Amino acid sequence: MADEGLRPIIVKRIKKSGGGHHGGAWKIAYADFVTAMMAFFLLMWLLGSTTKGNLQGIADYFSTPLKVAMAGGSGSGDATSVIKGGGKDMTRIDGQQKKGENLTPTKSLNLKDAEAELERQEMNRLKSLKERIEEAIDSIPSLRQYKNQLLLDITSEGLRIQIVDEKNRPMFALSKADLQPYTKLILHEIAKTLNDIPNRISLSGHTDATPYSSGEKSYSNWELSSDRANASRRELIAGGMEEAKMLRVVGLSSAVLFDQKDPLNPINRRISIIVMNKKTEDSITKANRTLDVVSEATAKQTVENGVNPSVAAQPAPLAATPAGAQK
């Protein structure tokens, strides 16, 4: 019995191997495969959602990353680039900017506001010209006595300067286009001021409603008003006005009376000089342009824009021999 108490106790440990010949290594390989697939699909998504320009920028960045980052260009620093960094702004707040690039924000111009500003500046020029002519009339003694015959005002066409007849002081010889000496003096003084602004000139002649004895068949108020307007044009040029500034010379007979209540009033006999604004000048220079209307929509647009392709400036008729009426 004593020997049995001294017998050694043997503990057997059984080592179990449930993984077979490869153990758990397949789990690591599978995790690496899933990670690679996720990276591949992420890359495909990026390539599919990126524009052609950005793709080129990405390619440039990976081919020469230091050059793109230091020198700028269409690449990684662009604010639209998928990849952050590069350029001068690493946070993509401003995006990549080339050296010497103008950082001043571009102003957007409103066409209507610009046109209104141009009209305002033009109106100021015409008002300034009106004031200079009025000062010249007051300061030159030879003109001051004809102040009542010089009428200046601003109209929708521009600055209008009218030289009108008085009962005992006509501008022209009776029934002729021969200017009186004081009329030449007035036109010479006006001519000196017209070159100060770029606006072009329209000149029209007017008569009263007194008819010629021969009526409208031969030499009439139409021919007389045209001849007087052309004589005034020649005198303005002789006084120093540039010939190219004259755009229109017309004779209107008694069609546009100054005194509507009294067609025979001497004040209806006048010369009207208009320093035209841009709008009036364009309406004259564009009058002879043709427009081919090819559809109803085009015709509607033409009417809305106020273009009349049939309008053409017709010169007033000129004739040779005056009759004996008093004008």
Number of domains: 2
Number of helices: 9
Q: Report the end-to-end length measured between terminal Cα atoms.
A: 172 Å
Indicate the multimeric state.
single chain
Q: Ranges with pLDDT <50 over ≥5 residues?
A: 308-326
Structural class of the secondary structure composition?
alpha+beta
Element-level helix/strand string: HHHHHEEHEHEEHH
CATH topology of the largest domain, anyone? 60s Ribosomal Protein L30, Chain: A
On the 0 to 100 scale, the average pLDDT is 76
Helix fraction bin = 25-40%
What is the makeup of the main sheet?
A: 5 strands, mixed
The strands making up the biggest β-sheet line up spatially as: 1-2-5-3-4
Q: Work out the radius of gyration.
A: 45 Å
Quote the beta fraction. 5-15%
Region (Disordered): 200-220, 307-327
Transmembrane segments: 28-47
Family: Belongs to the MotB family.
Protein name: Chemotaxis protein MotB (Motility protein B)
Describe what this molecule looks like in 3D.
InterPro entries: Bact_OuterMem_StrucFunc, MotB-like_N_dom, OmpA-like, OmpA-like_sf. Residues 200-220, 307-327 are annotated as: Disordered. Residues 201-220 have a biased composition (Polar residues). With 327 residues, the chain is of the alpha+beta class. The protein folds into 2 domains: 29-97, no CATH class; 114-291, OmpA-like domain (60s Ribosomal Protein L30, Chain: A, 2-Layer Sandwich). It contains 9 helices and 5 strands. The protein has helices spanning 25-48, 52-63, 65-71, 111-139, 141-144, 181-194, 221-238, 278-285, 296-304; strands at 150-154, 158-164, 201-206, 246-251, 270-276. Strands 1-2-5-3-4 form a 5-stranded mixed sheet. The longest helix is centred in the middle third of the chain and has 29 residues, at 111-139. The termini are far apart. The model is unreliable at 308-326 (pLDDT under 50).
